[in-house]
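Below is one such record:
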Amino acid sequence: MAIGSIRFFSEDVTHFPDIKDPEFLFVFKDLMAASWDELPDTLISDANKALSKNTEDKAAQEAVANVFRAAEAVEEFSGMLVSLRMAIDDSIGLGGEDVKPLPEEFVNALRTVYQRYTAYLDAFGPDETYLRKKVETELGTKMIHLKMRCSGIGSEWGKITVLGTSGLSGSYVEHRA
């Protein structure tokens, strides 16, 4: 029995952009591996250094710039989510001992947070699936923490995932279809 050619699953699917320059590759991988809650100063310094470098690999430079911008945006947005959750906790008590309907300012803030979150995720193109999944992973937990503290919020909050792997968007199944 001879086996002709073997085709591996997802062999034609690339997760990350093709980065040839080792300095850009190092920074790219570090940014993707880091927690975006609070970016380390050394990582920010490495990214700024790489981005100010004169290079032939413009695609790699653009990929690193996109990841770095996303990391900074997520870091800032995370801070707002934590502040909102803390304000809600202060309003109802950490243990929920003073539960009451949410004031209109919190309802509006939650609506705005959700709209900005979904608009940001929708802004990623099909070639930036890796970046969208990283953003979903970084922000999803904080969004769910908000969701758990409030009742009566819209059903659209059910679409928020903790892990960016839920659903078929960007998955192997979608690429193979």
About this structure: The radius of gyration is 20 Å. Residues 58-92 form the longest helix (35 residues).
